[in-house]
């Protein structure tokens, strides 16, 4: 995929990303996340005390895979290093934007208020590597 194509693909609708972090023992931890692109980064939020939150605080390496599970099947994997923030205003701002993408603009502020609270982390990952394939089964 071209850059324009992969950006459109990962931003389409409500596709979740499957986020991979590194556990303390070096093994992978993979969970679905809601996210948005912001320039050359992707942004999501998570609880500070979740497995992924603790993993990211210890080891900032991360990959996000977004896929289309219907034929002809496509995927994009974004990799980089996470920067964590607990800034209250930024948490609310991004949680609102992410909530709007996944739950609709009419519920964006509700999700911003729910997820932009103390104990949450704003995670920004500068994209360092992109792997993608469109129409895998064509």
TrEMBL record:
GO molecular function, one term: oxidoreductase activity, acting on the CH-CH group of donors
Pfam families registered for this protein in UniProt: PNPOx_N (PF01243)
InterPro entries: F420-binding_dom_put (IPR019920), F420H2_bilvrd_red/Heme_oxyg (IPR052019), Pyridox_Oxase_N (IPR011576), Split_barrel_FMN-bd (IPR012349)
Keyword Oxidoreductase: yes
A GO cellular component annotation in the UniProt record: cytosol
Domain Pyridoxamine 5'-phosphate oxidase N-terminal as annotated: residue spans: 3-131
Keyword Protein biosynthesis applies: no
Key words, A-Z: Oxidoreductase
PANTHER family assigned: F420H(2)-DEPENDENT BILIVERDIN REDUCTASE, HEME OXYGENASE HI_0854-RELATED
Protein name listed in UniProt: PPOX class F420-dependent enzyme
Organism of derivation: Streptomyces filamentosus
Lineage summary: Bacteria, Bacillati, Actinomycetota, Actinomycetes, Kitasatosporales
């Amino acid at each position: 995929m071209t850059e324009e194509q992969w950006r459109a693909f990962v931003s389409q609708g409500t596709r979740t990303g499957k986020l991979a972090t590194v556990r303390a023992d070096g093994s992978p931890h993979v969970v679905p996340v809601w996210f948005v692109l912001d320039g050359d980064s992707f942004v999501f939020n998570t609880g500070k005390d979740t497995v992924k939150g603790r993993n990211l605080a210890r080891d900032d390496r991360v990959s996000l895979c977004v896929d289309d599970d219907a034929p002809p099947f496509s995927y994009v994997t974004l990799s980089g290093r996470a920067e964590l923030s607990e800034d209250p205003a930024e948490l609310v701002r991004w949680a609102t934007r992410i909530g709007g993408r996944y739950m609709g603009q009419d519920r964006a502020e509700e999700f911003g208020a729910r997820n932009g609270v103390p104990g949450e982390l704003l995670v920004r990952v500068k994209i360092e590597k992109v792997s993608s394939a469109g129409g895998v089964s064509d």
